[in-house]
Design a protein that fits this description.
Blueprint lengths: L1 E5 L6 H13 L6 E5 L1 H12 L4 H10 L3 H4 L4 H10 L8 H11 L13 E7 L4 E5 L9 H8 L9 E3 L2 E5 L1 H4 L3 H6 L4 E6 L13 H25 L5 E6 L14 H17 L32 E3 L8
Parallel strand pairs: 1-2, 1-7, 2-3, 7-8
Antiparallel strand pairs: 3-4, 3-6, 4-9, 5-6
Helix pairs in contact: 1-3, 1-11, 2-3, 2-7, 6-7
């Protein structure tokens, strides 16, 4: 069973669109797709369209996103929201409209999707990963769940759904390859437009150290998913790490077409010489690799699964 897993990455999401084009050109089509944050938006549009032509629609979606629309308001308005005790510096109404305007003609709930799709979010009540949809109930609204998965804490307010407060799925699981394994994938194409596991040099300054600390926090899901895939001879994980255009500020949404081309070229290079993760030799700490339990320890929320990721817990 083939799965495509799409990481978070903010405005680097168009890189994944180009990578998808390369996969489809090589005849690689998934049985299902998993997405986090920006990858959730790409995943849901692919699943709603259900054909390789979805990348054309995705390109149009990303061209429609501008920092001034996604984060509407000026700095004084953001400061005023902070002083008033609002849940975020910016409202999310514009982002909701952008998602809905492109998505509603295709599908409204997970039951309408033409390709199975799983979206990660993080719940502030349970402090755990919440995965949409529930396999037994696909009535959850797509717009709400995609918005939640891409909701950056403090910048946009949490999405209220079924008694939860949902934010960016990347807070708990920025690299959803483990979700793909949990759902039975034996071949996974992980399109990663964020940190890829490389050793980085020294860092200095308050901003630099804070940024590196966030990267370190988010990287743990990547390391553990790569280790888990390497320890499982039944899983073939292709880690397509796209580093191009890394100098683009996170506020810059003007380079969509260049990113699509860069993502396509990077994936093409990988596919010319694919190097899936190989099984590791020697002892492995299996306590980190146990498939996660989907049984909620708190009341079940309609339309979602509360995941207790045992292989992400500290041993």
């Amino acid at each position: 069973m083939i799965a495509i897993a799409l990481t978070g990455g903010g405005n680097r999401g168009p890189l994944q669109v180009g990578a998808l084009q390369a996969l489809f050109a090589h005849g690689i089509w998934p049985d299902f797709v998993v997405g986090t944050s920006a990858g959730a938006l790409n995943a849901i549009y692919l699943a709603a369209d259900g054909t390789p032509a979805a990348t054309d629609r995705l390109a149009a979606v990303w061209r429609d996103v501008k920092f001034g629309t996604a984060f509407s308001g000026n700095y004084l308005q953001a400061l005023w929201r902070f002083l008033r005790g609002n849940d975020s510096f910016y409202a999310s109404d514009n982002m909701r409209r952008i998602i809905a305007s492109h998505l509603d003609p295709l599908a409204r709930t997970y039951a309408d999707l033409k390709l199975p799709c799983y979206i990660t979010t993080s719940d502030l009540h349970s402090n755990r990963l919440w995965l949409f949809p529930d396999d037994n109930d696909k009535s959850a609204p797509l717009v709400d769940t995609v918005l939640a998965s891409a909701t950056l804490p403090a910048l946009h307010p949490p999405v209220a759904y079924g008694g939860t407060q949902l934010i960016d799925g990347g807070v708990v699981d920025n690299v959803p390859a483990g979700i793909a394994m949990d759902k039975g994938a034996t071949v996974i194409y992980l399109i990663n437009v964020g940190y890829g596991g490389e050793t980085q040099g020294p860092v200095s300054g308050i901003t630099g150290i804070l940024s590196r600390t966030i990267t370190t926090f988010l990287a743990q899901s990547l390391f553990q998913d790569l280790e888990r895939a390497s320890a499982n001879s039944d899983v073939q994980l292709h880690h397509i790490h796209i580093t191009e255009m890394g100098d683009t500020p996170f506020t810059d949404f003007s380079r969509v077409d260049a990113m699509i081309e860069a993502g396509r070229n990077a994936a093409e290079r990988y596919l010319r010489d694919p190097q899936p993760r190989q099984p590791v030799t020697g002892p492995t700490d299996r306590s980190l690799l146990t498939p996660k339990s989907v049984a909620p320890s708190q009341p079940h929320v309609r339309g979602a699964q509360l995941f207790t990721p045992t292989y992400r817990q500290t041993p």
